[in-house]
Amino acid sequence: MDMAGRILVLNTGSSSVKYELVDMRTRERPARGLVERIGEEQGRLVHHVGDAPPYERRRRFADHGEALSAVMATFRDAGPELDPVAVGHRVVHGGDRFDRAVLVDDGVIAAIEELAPLAPLHNPVNLVGIRVARAAFAGVPQVAVFDTAFHLTLPPEAYTYAVPREWGVRRFGFHGTSCAYVSGRAAAFLGRDPAELNLIVLHLGNGASATALSGGRSLDTSMGLTPLEGLVMGTRSGDVDPALAGYLSRVRGLDAEHTELALSREGGLHALAGSGDMREVRARDDAEARLALAVYTRRIRKYVGAYYALLGRVDAVVFTGGVGENDAATRAESLAGLERLGLVVERRLNESGSRQERAVSPPGAEAAVLVIPTDEEWEIARQALALVAEGR
Ligand SMILES: Nc1ncnc2c1ncn2[C@@H]1O[C@H](COP(=O)(O)OP(=O)(O)O)[C@@H](O)[C@H]1O
Ligand SMILES: CC(=O)OP(=O)(O)O
Ligand SMILES: [Mg+2]
């Protein structure tokens, strides 16, 4: 077996399937694509092979199983040959069971299933991905890489909620794969040993989170028991008064399940500006959009201030994710007024439009402000390969 061959990475989201075939030697992606709007009338599959024009199909995909079958069929029709040496699965919730990636066996599947109540929109569909890949690639190792794993270093005072102990709840944190990747890249960019760095990582994508890292380990993070807590996101509210659920139940007769789902899918930028897509919100210039952006960036600023207080010294703030990497205005507005903490965004650097890893703080600044494009698929593939090589 060619251990440095290709790894298929599957990221099954609540209504989408994203996949990338990663060439471990060149780091290229011979194929990548996604199926979106699964379950809706008008679904869409887009499959990219190298730089060729994308292969596209618009139809209904009833569920994730059907979407994944369509992906396999697309590889057969449009190539390339699908012969992965391993399949890496993004699994959102690993609870406190998994502090690292693991080879999937029946026990791991059962554990992911048991954790489903904590991530009802994610873990069950992650399992569909695992089951389909197990059937399609018999004998090929399947690896589960958990979003939560990186954050199991949180100290008790960070992960403990001030609620009755018998509830058995705690903060977990998510986006760990992205944090692990960008924090390593940030240290390399700065030419420093990760062990001596204090960082604040702002992963701003559809989901968004802030993480304080000390010595390469997660010290605090804004997402909690579930990925709903913390920053304002595309369709998630982030922090709200926990009394909200009771209030809505009393005055509107909404049950808690309904409220949770609405906070998750109808909150955030979507609630405030009618779209969860930052590009669409930025394209507008009206009072509603301005308020939405002010709420979004103010929340980030509050977390940066809080994490500064926890860390005592910050060597770099790292922006990543679709918004963090591309939206210069979000970077500038989020750190506005924090110059006295040594956090300065230099306008020309910030607005350069570069897609490279880069500093947007002035040279010699007390703390660096970095833009590091995340690559969760590479990180998943890398961890999968390491595990498979170890197990040989
Ligand atoms: N050029 C851009 N300017 C502003 N926002 C952008 C830009 N490109 C992408 N985004 C935003 O990034 C978000 C998606 O982030 P991404 O990390 O790709 O999502 P996911 O969390 O699903 O992986 C969307 O809100 C999108 O509008
Ligand atoms: C866990 C989570 O928030 O993931 P995403 O950013 O992909 O929605
Ligand atoms: Mg992403």
From TrEMBL:
Q: Taxonomic lineage per UniProt?
A: Bacteria, Bacillati, Actinomycetota, Actinomycetes, Streptosporangiales
Residue sites binding ATP per the record:
K18, H203, L204, G205, N206, G207, D277, M278, R279, G322, V323, G324, E325, N326
How does this polypeptide assemble, per the annotation?
Homodimer.
What residues bind substrate, as annotated? R90
Q: Name one GO biological process term.
A: acetyl-CoA biosynthetic process
Residues marked Transition state stabilizer (site): H175, R236
Which GO CC terms are listed, alphabetically? cytoplasm
What family does this chain come from, according to its entry? Answer: Belongs to the acetokinase family.
Q: Where does Mg(2+) bind?
A: N11, E376
Q: Write out the catalytic residues in the record.
A: D147 (proton donor/acceptor)
Cofactor details (free text):
Mg(2+). Can also accept Mn(2+).
InterPro entries documented for this protein: Ac/propionate_kinase (IPR004372), Aliphatic_acid_kin_short-chain (IPR000890), Aliphatic_acid_kinase_CS (IPR023865), ATPase_NBD (IPR043129)
Q: Name one Pfam family in it.
A: Acetate_kinase
| CDD domains referenced in this protein's UniProt entry, alphabetically | ASKHA_NBD_AcK_PK
Please explain the role this protein plays, according to its UniProt record: Catalyzes the formation of acetyl phosphate from acetate and ATP. Can also catalyze the reverse reaction.
This protein's name: Acetate kinase
A single GO molecular function term of this UniProt record: ATP binding
Q: Name the source organism.
A: Nonomuraea maritima
